Amino acid sequence: MCIRDRNYDAIERECPLIAQLGYLGVKVYPPTEHVEDYDSPEDGDLNPWFWIYQPVSYRLTSRQGTRAELRRMINTCRRLGLRVYADVIFNHMAGDGHSSFPKKRNWSLLGGCATWGPKSSSAHSPYFTTFGTYENWEFTGKRPAIEFPGVPYTASDFHCARKLKDYDNLYEMNYFWVVGLSDLKTEDPWVQKRLADYIVDLMGIGFSGFRIDAGKHVHPADQARIFGEFKRLLGEIPSDFLVYNEMTYDCHFEKVFCYPSEYSFHHNMTVILKEEGWEDHEIHMLKFWVQDYDGYSKACKGVNKLPMTRVLVQNECHDHQNTYGGSIPIIAVDKNPCKYQRVVAELMRTSQYESEIKLLMTSYWVTNGYKGFPDGKSDCGLCRNDICKKYCTNSVPKKDAADPNACPYEGMDGFGYTRVHRDLAIVRAMREWLGISTQIEMKDIGLRDECEVKCSGIKLFISFAFAFILAVASFI
């Protein structure tokens, strides 16, 4: 189950219920230090969700909590039989323009010159990018360069700042900058070693694996080398290990999964992983999420394509609810519980796709298009200066993500959490797919009967109806 936008304490308090419902694990937001600031909102939002995906270092202090709080949450969840997985970012560091450099400016679309000061981070490490800088450093007398001392990375560890424009061009996908994010030179052994060190550290505090954000932007050969170093450092791949790449809407099946090529995450990556000492059963633990899993199941007939047992099934990801949307139901935006319940319950129940893992995202309500989330750190009342108070217009109040009395879909007209993992129709469908008892009622999990969402005209189970829950894995 993918848990979005909750701090570690809230996840720890929810883990007993998650385990009782039958889910097998949870996945959390990237635990790394990232951009976090209370002086400069972005487009009216204080600490928007996407700043969590802009690393500053690999220190394990994020807006979700400290390293000690993270370890405690993992230990609690594992004692209950739940595995814990982390979002990790190989592709990039913080976006260009986010920086500890004190003075920056740029032409404003509203006219005139926009200026802004230094940006902080969740653990207060210094970091530097070049966009908007217009003065030399007082210490060196030279222009500032891109640098992340907390890792450390310097300018030579990044690709040249070229904007990704053509998503059909796999070279651009791997070597250009995505939406201004500082693109790491993942083909460099130094960078590969830093990334391997980081994920070994995550394993050391109890994680069982990772989701690779923006995985399609990291060359399959680079990923194979990173995991080769990872295995050398770790010594042995655990039996419950899992990695899955985010390969969203603009992924081309034929180019990356079906036919041999430099950019194949099936053929080329497998060859290099074996060179790096990975066995077949270990390679099987490296999986992929594609948005159109139904389309992929029917694509490339008669060729040696990536098998569906290495493809994950999930209705939506965080990008959908914040950016893309589309034809699939997005509960956080559509706010239509019956439509969502019908589609996701069937997705949980079906054995059509031969997938070994299914994911369910429990998140927060996207209200008025605001980009913050209700953990308390997107509340404009936290602004520390007059400029922030003036331009922070999209305040999101704090809500308790682990409220034991909250029904699924509660508070959809305002701010709060979706809690789709408490929807018994979805829970029963998931449990049927796993082959465990579907005899579970609201009273069994301490919620009121009226919390059950009953949708007329929908064929569901029995009588009726975040920042993630990494749901159900039949192979574990």
Keywords:
globular, 476 residues, nine-stranded mixed sheet, alpha/beta, 27% helix, single chain, disordered C terminus
Mean pLDDT: 88
Spans with pLDDT under 50 lasting ≥5 residues?
457-476
Protein structure class:
alpha/beta
Q: Using DSSP, what is the number of strands?
A: 13
Summed up, the helix count is 14
Q: What is the radius of gyration computed over CA atoms, rounded to a whole number of angstroms?
A: 22 Å
User: How big a fraction of the residues is strand?
Assistant: 5-15%
SSE string: EHEHEEEEHEHEHEHHHEHEHHHEHHE
Write down the overall geometry.
Answer: globular
Structure overview:
The chain is of the alpha/beta class. The chain has helices at residues 8-21, 67-79, 170-175, 189-204, 220-234, 253-258, 267-275, 280-283, 293-298, 318-324, 331-334, 337-349, 386-391, 424-434, and strands at residues 2-3, 25-28, 83-89, 92-95, 104-107, 113-116, 181-183, 209-213, 242-246, 286-289, 311-314, 357-362, 469-473. Strands 1, 2, 3, 8, 9, 10, 11, 12 and 13 form a nine-stranded mixed β-sheet that branches. A two-stranded antiparallel ribbon has the order 4-7. Helix 2 links the parallel strand 2 and strand 3 (83-89). Helix 12 runs parallel beside helix 14 (424-434). The longest helix is centred in the middle third of the chain and has 16 residues, at 189-204. The two termini are 14 Å apart. Residues 457-476 have low confidence and may be disordered.
